[in-house]
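To: structure subgroup
Subject: Chain for Friday's discussion

All,

I'm putting the inputs and outputs inline so they're searchable in the archive.
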Amino acid sequence: MAPQVVDETAQRLPTRKGPDAAAQSAAPAEPAPAEPAPAAPEPAPERIDAELLIAASVLLADAALTAKQSGAELTGALFSWRFGLEALRRPGWALGTALSCTQALTASSGLGFGANGGLVGELARMAGSMTYRRPAKVAMAVDAFALRIKAAAVEHPNLGSPAARRLTDAMVAGNRLEALRAAFGLIELLGVTRALTTVSPVIMELLALLGMLDENPVNDDFSWVTLAGGVPTTDPFLGLPSSVLGFLNPGPGRAERTEPDPILAKVLATSRNDIVSYVNDIGALGNHGLVLLRRVACADGAVRYVLLLPGTSFGLLSNSTPQDLVGAFDGLLRTDTTYTRAAKKLLQRAGVPAGADLMIVGHSLGGLTAMNLATDVEVSATYRVTHVVTLGSPIDGKRPADHTTQVISLVNKHDVIPMLDGRGPAAPHDIPDSWVELAWLDESYDYPLSHAPQAYSDTLRGELTHYRDQVNKLISAYDGEVVGNQPYMLRDK
C-alpha cells in the first residue's frame, strides 16, 4: 500500500460571525502571549547519487591504470639498452634524464614510487609493497574501490550500518588488524551467514583492497584485474595462478547412464518447458554428480535437447564428482574443467546428433559450466547452443563462441555467488546488450538460503511471475512433448 501523504499546512479556525464576534472585535486586544521560538529544522538526510559515485570511480580507476602504465613505460625506458647506449654518447644528458625520471617515479608529487614492469621495475615494486609505500596509482585505486562500496550501500543499506561501515572503512584504510576486529564484531552481532550476506555486494572490492594494501607483492594482479573489470586469474591471498587449479582438478571426466530414484522420477514426470520446472528438476537432481539430458519433440516438429546441470556440493573441498569446491573455483577461472569434459562425453555417449539444437540450464557451478560449454569452440561447432540459462552463477566475464546464443541470467542480489565474477552492484562494467539479466531482492536474505534453487523457484512462482513469463517466452522454441529424460552420473575419472 502506498504511504499516505499528510498535508502539513496549518489549519485555521473559521472566524465567528454575529454580535459576539463584533463585541470581541471592539474590545481592546489583549497582548498575545509570546510564542516560543521555532525549533531549528533538522538537517535533511544526505542524498547519495549512486550513479555519480560509480562514474567518479570509473574516472579514478582509469587514472590509476594510466598511472600504472606510465610507471611501467618510464621504468622500461630508464633501464632500456637504448638509454644505456645514449648515456655512453651523452653522459651529462643521461645523468639529468635519469635524475628526472627517478624523481618522477619516486616523488610524492609524481607517481609516488610507481616503478613496475621488467626485472628492475618489479623488484622496485616489490620493495615498495613490502615497505608499505603507497604510490599514486594505489591511492587512486583505493579511492575508486571506496566509491564503489559507498555506491553499493545505496541499494544495500545494511552496508551502511555502523558495524559494516567499521569493516569497510578499515579495509579502505589498509588496517588489517582493525578489519579483523570489525569482522569478528560483525559476526558476533549478525552471525556468520548474515554477516557474509551483508558484505556480499562488495566482496570482490574488499578482496581487491586486501590484495592491494598488504605487504605481499605477488597478489596485486587480482586487485588490478578487478579494478579494470576483468575476472581475476589469481587468488587474492597468495597470488597463485589459476593453472594451479588444473593440477587439483585434473580428471578427464566420465559420464555414466543411471536410473532416477523414485523422488526424482516423480518430479520429472510432471516436468515441462518452464523455468520454474527446470529449477525444481535441478533441485531434485541434487549436487552429488547427477545431471539430466532431456529430449523434446517440439511443437514445430523439430527434436531439441535440454541439458540440466546442478551446482556445487559444499560438503568437501574435493570429491569424486565434478560438483565440488575445487571444481567451482576451476570453473570460475577456466573453461576447460572436469565438469565440462564430463558433460561433453555425456553428449557424445547419448548420441546427440551433430547440428542439434541444445539448451543448457544450470544453477551455480552448473551455470558456470553451461557458459564454459557455450564458450567451447568444439561444442559450438558440433551443436547449435541456442540458449544458456543460469541461476545464481558468476558468468559475466565469459562469452559464448556463437554470438547467436541467447544468454539468460537470473540473479538474486542477496546471493553471494553471482558477485564472484567481479561485477557487483557497484561495478561500472555491464554485460552485452544481447544478454537478458533479471535480478531482484527477495526475502531469502541469508546465504546459503538465498543461493538455493528453491529460493529462485519460490521467487519466480511468487511476486516475480512476470520474470517467469518473460523467460518462458524466450525459450518457447522448446515447447512440446518430453520424449526422453535420461539422468547421468558424472565422475572426475
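Points worth raising on Friday:
Confidence is low (pLDDT under 50) at residues 1-29.
The CA atoms of residues 257 and 329 lie 27 Å apart.

D.
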